[in-house]
Design brief:
The chain is an alpha/beta fold. It contains eight helices and five strands, in the order βαβαβααβααβαα. The protein has a single domain, classed as HUPs (Rossmann fold).
């Protein structure tokens, strides 16, 4: 059986990527992080999604990453942007960017992949409908994969671990449609950057998610404030 480590935030994208991998026959080992994010609610979603999809394992690690500050997702003195249109989202790297997050997460996933004898790391990033994060670009993942080949035992022995980014060229509407095809549990996901009991519907992540469902002609199954 093919084996993969999947970075699972509990959001729309990571859940869809995981469900697609399951449909492709992968044995999945989920990895999630508590890095001090204000939307810690996403970890509840990740636990539920991992159970629903029948993951072989689900590891939740505590990371000091958020302690470095510099992001509205980890520093409560900074406001999460709301009500922005797509042009505003694309203008710059937003304050919700967490410095080096995907570098750290992928590095830990790489170590787990080696110990689990997994051939692939799956991450649900996408580069079209995104909020300007530099660590969601295809060139970043290509560079990380090259580094992983050079810097791991498996890599130098000719059994390199690949970085699979199945959603990277999809719009949010494409992702919603792909999720429906593989019966991803969209009602169990959490995308909102705020930490409330209901999604705010106003942050960049909520607005992009709602846009995706709207363009896909599907009703979003989660509840908004």
């Amino acid at each position: 059986m093919k084996r993969a480590v999947v970075l699972l935030s509990g959001g729309l994208d990571s859940t869809t990527a995981a469900a697609m991998a399951k449909a492709d026959g992968y044995e999945l080992h989920a990895l999630s992080f508590d890095y001090g994010q204000r939307h810690l609610r996403e970890l509840e979603a990740a636990r539920t999604v991992a159970k629903t999809l029948g993951m072989a394992s689900h590891t939740i690690l505590k990371s000091p990453l958020g302690g470095a500050g510099g992001s509205a997702l980890t520093d409560h003195s900074l406001d999460v942007p709301t009500g922005r249109d797509e042009t505003q989202m694309a203008d710059d790297i937003p304050i919700t960017y967490v410095p080096a997050r995907n570098i750290v997460f992928l590095s830990i996933a790489l170590g787990i992949a080696e110990t689990q004898q997994a051939d692939t790391i799956i991450i649900g990033a996408n580069a079209l409908d995104y909020s300007g994060y530099p660590d969601c670009r295809p060139e970043f993942f290509a560079a990380f994969e090259k580094m992983a080949t050079l810097g791991t035992k498996r890599g130098v022995e000719g059994h390199a671990i690949s970085i699979h980014v199945p959603l990277q060229h999809m719009t949010k509407a494409d992702i919603v449609q792909a999720a429906l095809k593989v019966d991803a549990p969209l009602d169990q996901t959490w995308s909102c950057y705020q930490g409330g009991k209901k999604a705010c519907g106003e942050c960049d992540s909520c607005l992009l998610r709602l846009k995706g469902f709207r363009e896909a002609g599907v009703t979003d199954p989660i509840t908004y404030a």
